[in-house]
């Protein structure tokens, strides 16, 4: 297959256009995951360790938000960042930061929901011990987060997998501008529609490698956590 051969050549020779797209994709996705972790892990811990009226509803809502439609998120972010929107003066629309914002919104519920379940399970195990030691709320949270770090890493990897494979939201808010906001997923969609299969296949190969590495890391993290717990 000539297209597959050409795609392999692009990957192996380090085609500048291809790897520029890959670098931007990784930068945007990693930035979104870091921001989502900063929001999602504390939020998950808060829901796991506190009891308040409406907590069950909040957990149900958080779990539902894990399935947020990317195009809807993209549309909402677009409306906020457009010139007529409340944040239009920031000038972020069709820039990488707008893509980071959209991906952060998509990834945060995933990290928060997985963190809540992990920390809540750990709290059931350690509740009596931490209560007997009169550990305060802040130290309680930090202790549980530290003990759950391997499982939380799995949550972050799951979030990164969602971000790296996202196309709808970042297409809307980023505009798929060549050399500026074009990511692997948006480039694959565009190049396929144009009939430029070698670049589309090459980017698809790189994306699949990244996804496989993420899943391998997640599996390794889980196994490491099981060995430590055992």
Keywords:
230 residues; mainly alpha; MetI-like fold; single chain; 10 helices; globular
The strand count comes to 0
State the major sheet. Answer: none
SSE string: HHHHHHHHHH
Count the DSSP helices. 10
Fraction in beta strands: under 5%
Q: How many discrete structural domains?
A: 1
CATH class group: Mainly Alpha
The CATH topology comes to MetI-like fold
From the 3D coordinates, which CATH architecture would you assign?
Orthogonal Bundle
> Which stretches are low in confidence, meaning pLDDT under 50 for 5 or more residues running?
none
Structural class given helices, strands, pairing?
mainly alpha
Q: Oligomeric form of this entry?
A: single chain
Radius of gyration, in angstroms, nearest whole number: 20 Å
What features would you describe in this structure?
With 230 residues, this protein is an all-alpha fold. It has one domain: MetI-like fold. 80% of the residues lie in helices and 0% in strands. The chain contains 10 helices and no strands. Helix 2 (16-49) runs parallel beside helix 5 (96-132). The longest helix is centred in the middle third of the chain and has 37 residues, at 96-132. It is globular. The mean pLDDT is 86.
In short:
With 230 residues, this protein is mainly α. It is 80% helix and 0% strand. The termini are far apart.
Question: What is the topological layout?
Answer:
Layout (H helix, E strand, L loop, with lengths): L1 H11 L3 H34 L5 H11 L4 H12 L14 H37 L4 H11 L1 H16 L3 H7 L9 H11 L2 H33 L1
Helix pairs in contact: 1-10, 2-5, 2-7, 3-5, 4-5, 4-8, 5-6, 5-7, 5-8, 7-10, 9-10
């Amino acid at each position: 297959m000539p297209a597959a051969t050409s795609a392999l050549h692009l990957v192996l020779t380090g085609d500048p256009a291809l790897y520029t797209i890959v670098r931007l994709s990784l930068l945007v996705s990693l930035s979104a995951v870091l921001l989502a972790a900063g929001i999602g892990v504390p939020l998950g811990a808060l829901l796991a360790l506190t009891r308040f009226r409406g907590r069950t509803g909040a957990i149900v809502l958080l779990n539902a938000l894990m399935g947020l439609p990317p195009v809807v998120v993209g549309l909402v972010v677009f409306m906020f960042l457009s010139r007529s929107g409340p944040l239009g003066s920031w000038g972020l629309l069709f820039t990488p930061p707008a893509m980071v914002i959209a991906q952060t919104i998509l990834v945060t519920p995933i990290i928060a929901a997985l963190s809540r379940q992990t920390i809540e399970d750990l709290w059931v195990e350690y509740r009596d011990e931490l209560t007997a030691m009169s550990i305060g709320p802040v130290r309680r949270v930090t202790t549980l987060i530290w003990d759950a770090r391997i499982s939380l890493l799995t949550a972050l990897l799951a979030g990164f997998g969602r971000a790296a494979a996202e196309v709808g939201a970042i297409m809307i808010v980023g505009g798929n501008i060549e050399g500026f906001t074009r990511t692997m997923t948006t480039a694959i969609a565009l190049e396929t529609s144009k009939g430029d299969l070698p670049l589309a296949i090459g980017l698809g190969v790189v994306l699949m490698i990244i996804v496989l590495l993420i899943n391998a890391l997640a599996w390794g993290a889980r196994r490491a956590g099981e060995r430590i717990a055992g």
